[in-house]
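Data availability excerpt. The first of two example chains:
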Amino acid sequence: MGVAQGRGFRPWLAASTASVFGDSVTFFAIGWAAAGFGADAASLVLTIEGIPLAVLVLAGGVLADRIGIRRTMAACDAAMVLVMAAFAVGAIDGAGLWMLVAVGALSGTIQALRRPAEGVFPRLFGAEDLDRRMALVGSAHQIARTAGPATGGFLIGHGGLPLTAGLDAATYAIVLVALLLVRPPHEPAPAPAQGSVWHSLADGARTAVRTPGVVPVLVAITGLAATVLPLVMLALPLAGRERGWTAAETGLVSGAWVAGGLVMTLAVARWGAPRAPVAVAGPALAAGGVVLLAVRTEIWAGILAVGLVGVGTTMLTSYLLPAYVARTPPEMLARFSSLTQLAQTGPVLLATPLLGVAAGVDVRLALAVIAALLLATVPAAARVARLPRPIPRRV
């Protein structure tokens, strides 16, 4: 069976990619509207949306394991249809800051409950070619995220927030219909509730600690999350201003991270995940890119450097994440997925202000710290690489 031939996989992939595109359009539009109220207001909206992703994502894993992965995703998508439709109507006469904050809080909460289920959904279409299937999803979603901001900017000028929110509501309706129609062949039955949510969380954490390779994967993901997003969102804009780059030039350099990661995910979707030694070398390649960014100030060097970061980090994650999903007990798919989601969101909240302090002293100091943290993920990744490649259990 081909990587995209699992029953119902292609319709779901197309619908989910459309939904990610709609989300990306709305994310840009809300950020643009919030920026009109000032920098503090824009920061408030982004923070309000980000907090639930760190606080509630573990609860989302418990929810999906208890009521079903597909059912959880469908319920969350239905909720997002209502939120975005209400936003589209409410913004017709203009959107106040309170409305942007409310939409950010609601969408962040719903996404936190949805992401653990979405992260393991590709596994429900079969265990074979899992790395290629996950890479195909990742590359399709990355293309959608890349196209979203430009489209959002165009739509803001031709219809404003009602148009962007209406588009997002429509894409959520599309993926909701796909989820209601698609029946993944290996979807596990919902696990009956046993004890409180806290008991289920503790049970999942204990199982994760006992499962070979899981803790090193989480450590490596934490290291990548604490470095890559602060690099792109914080250190790179500061470096651009310090070096006299224009906003367009800095955006071009920043986009090289997406481009590098996309090239790697497309390669994995075509040929499979890299071998363990190549994957483990990924953080070193990314660290080399950060060092290049620190020592050279030309635009071409910045593009090359940040592109290497995208390639190197994706080299590692394209190996680690399928191995992690393959080792997950079928009855705890979503709870294990929520741990990776937390590992990707929590460190950013802690690392960003600390790296901001370092950048206040010297941007090159922040870049040196980022390079060191990237290299620190290598031992954890090497531990996973030494384990035998797991054969995913059928669910």
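And the second chain:
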Amino acid sequence: MLELWNSWYDTLASVEALATVIVIVLVAAGAITLAESRRR
């Protein structure tokens, strides 16, 4: 039971890390787009 919980927690942690990376990339892309549109 504990092993199952640990593997589930590891999966959740990796999914959370992946989601964090995606959010950071989206925010960076949005900031770059804003900067580009302001420059024009």
